[in-house]
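User: Hi! I'm working on a homework problem where we have to compare a predicted structure to a textbook description. Could you give me the structure for the chain below?
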Amino acid sequence: DNNPLYYAKLYATNINEIVRKHKILNPILHIHSTGNRENFSFFLSLLDEKINIKFFLNELAPYSFLDLVFADILVASHSSFSWLALLLRNGPSYIRKDFRHFTTELTSTLDEVLFSDNQTAIQKFRIKLLLKFRYWIFNQKLKRVKDW
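Assistant: Happy to help. Predicted structure tokens:
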């Protein structure tokens, strides 16, 4: 629940890129979470439509763990649960940068930049405009707190 729009964009963009990079013809994405399907609606809207989604929500931990260990490609979160699965794997794995534990040589870092080479100038301008607007809103709220 911490900045779900950012993380939806981050993971969807990277998963779409992994599917493209590895030339996966019939991709199946297993989503393991303690959340519910509604939490993933925006994320799913950003994924390539050819990706088949299978939810494993509130699944028994041993089952989820084994699914992570034996996944063809693992996209791990910043949790010790998925990190341990990452260590036991022999296949390619991905994780966000700056994770608190060491990773294996088969682990790649996910790209966390807002801009990419395949974005149009209008898309980049929109991102900059949104950032400036959100910063302005933040400053307005900060001024109110200081004045209070």
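For your comparison, note the following. The helical segments are 4-21, 41-46, 61-69, 80-87, 121-147. Residues 129 and 135 are 10 Å apart (CA to CA). Good luck with the assignment!
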